[in-house]
Amino acid sequence: MAEVCTSKKPRRVSSCASTFIYGGRLLRATPLLVVLVALHFSVSEVSANGEGSKIGELKGTVSIGEGAARSYVPAAKVVAIGPITVQTEANSEGEFAFGEMPAGLYTVTASAPGLEAQQIVTLQPNQIPQISLQLKPTVAVASVNVSAPDSAAGSPGPTQTIGEKTLRDAPNVNERLETLLPLVPGVVRSPDGHINMKGARNTQSGALVNSANVTDPATGSPAMNLPIDVVSSVEVVSNSYDPQYGKFTGAVSSVETKTGNYEKYHYSIQNVLPRLRDRDGSIVGIGAATPRATFTGPLVRDKLAFTQSIEYRFVRTPVNSLPPLERDTTIESVDSYTQGDLKISPTQTATVSFAVFPQKFQYMGLNPFTPQPATADLHQRGYQVYGQHRFLTGDESALISQFSYKTYDADVTAQSDDPYQLLIETTEGGYFNRQARRTWRLEGQESYQFAPRHFLGTHEFKAGLNYAHSSYDGRQTFLPVELIGVSGLPIERITFTPPTTFGVDQDETAWFAGDQWSPSKRVTLDLGLRFDNDTVTGTTHVAPRAGFILVLTNDGKTLLKGGAGMFYDRVPLMYPVFEHMPERTASTLDENGEASSATGYANRIGGELHNPESIAWNTAIERQVLERLTVRLAYEQRNTTKDFTLSPVSYASSGVLLLSNTGRDTYGEYQVAGRYQSERLTLNGSYTRSRAYGNLNDPALFFGNYPQAVIQPDARARLPFDAPNRLLFWADVSGPFKLTLIPVYDLHSGFPYSTWNQFREYVGPRNDRRYPRFSSMDLQVSRPFSLHVGESRHLQVRAGFGVFNVFNHFNPRDVQNNLDSDRYGDFFNDAWREYRGKFVFQF
After folding, report:
1. What whole-number distance in Å separates Cα of residue 268 and Cα of residue 265?
2. Global pTM?
């Protein structure tokens, strides 16, 4: 951990509102030591300055249920205990507010008959934090005060939430929601840039926004972008025993957007200045321009609130091993989100939203061995219309109705039509694949949260019905590919049948029911049952689930959690039409470039398509060791069968490219985590020991957004995003002079990779080699300011800066894995240190 990179790279410049020049040597110090020293001086200076005497305010909501089943609870009692103790009641909409209060650490508790929620909040001077208290059945005696690290104390399954403050203040190099997901143990970003949650491919995980499915029906990947300013929280749910969650075998990211302001108008503008593009000490154009603006306020006071957020993004991302002016991928997008929140009556509310997210991705697939002319461009267009109606049928019961309509179109094009050639050291010609996809999904859901029933304890029942119709129309074109050997001559040619068009539709229906049963104050059981049916597989699956929470000690500070359940994944619509896609012929060439042998591969589906299924279980013990320190020891296991895999099978001069449900994946994770909270400091730490193992030939690698040309036989090994050992530390520090400091330190094993030869045939065991150990320290520092713009108006400004990879550790993202290369085993595309400025204007 003490290693510091002293690379002799050229000095580079990065600019936002200011210009920073950096380079040269760094003092050798361990990242953890630096963090601890910084925390020590920050907290000590805050205490000396007496910042706790300043004034702040506190607002929030009280609700029951999750996602689509959430409803707000009127008349709940809310108490805040800290430097002072105050008490209030939630209004008819479940909202509460405390006026001026001394800044400091508060424990906020909400309670209703048989229900309770608790949250620890750091109230900072001149701020009005918004908190959400979700009521759960009382599971312990009144003295219980458990704050589990990164998890909800009332959830038996592994669940971690990234809150609004972290979304706003944590270091976020791209200022996108997904960039912060690796703050959750078990979530990593692999070298290809994809987010992998809990040992699963991104096509195996679910993505929800306000409980609506936002994945691409064709590929199963997440396919919706939101301006981060409208997000109130994102929850990573692994092995959820709540039966409302379905159609995944990995984990689910569930995003909740903010409710519009019914009382006052608020505006925010940020990133108004572009970031310059530095190449070897010279400024060459614009590196990024990402302005965004958000407005919220009442259209009809206390009745109708309106929110509008829009963001334009033009971002060049360098591949640092390529020539200075030929190393950038470019993303250009416009993300717009419009939301209306309506209070129909004291018992009815509604939300309607409209999101638009077109994007152009230029030079997709750029890496040290694939220059810009040989890459592809990806053009995406999509929008979503969403509505939800919440009807409070009683003090603790609610009917939730929601619908969504989403379109997602994608086109893959090339830079030229020149012959595509794969050389030992580079790639030449124009990309070999062209695609045009048109997809849409219409989805509706009804769910009902029953009022608690009292029979052998307390029961909270809920039930729901979900229906979705998806459609996919596509066109695929593949052009010839040549492999160039060490001699510089073609050694293999891959040709394809003419372009094809195809289409498929799917209907999906799900029913679910659950019961949260508390037979005593120290035992809570989550019991659920889900039925899934779809017209592609023509089958109905039953998915039972059960979880538990046991309060082990009389003081209520030790919890034992666990559970087990079955989960069934969706079938991406690119799989049912697989046999209609262009077919290929692989020819081995002699010295004269003539075919010495050839094998034609027909696309075939092995038997009937099935939904991948997984059996998952977990257990965890959580203990509030000290008043401010909570620790957790946990283990979770997932075994997936009937996963989709693709593999060529040859018979002399003929063969088949076989798509089948023969894949198997396993994921196991041991985790030790802790959280320390004080008035000015929250420190999170975790160590994760994990193993992700399974079939490597994911069909999306060869028929997804960026297909690979060569398909070798499938094999089972460590998955490409397997990181056996990971240490993660991050803190939220209220420093001196109103500074907020959030350092993040991530240390994990390098990802695995395979070795191949000039024919791109794998040599030796698959994924038996690894990238160097990944080590990165990121830091975000920010401070609020108040500027007078009139006699009675103030402009609120939040300014700061971020540093990414503070110690400039060597973290490569590409490797030369060709045995026939003179650079075999060399690593490239280091993620260099970067600086970012931050300016947010609010009024």
Report:
1. 10
2. 0.82
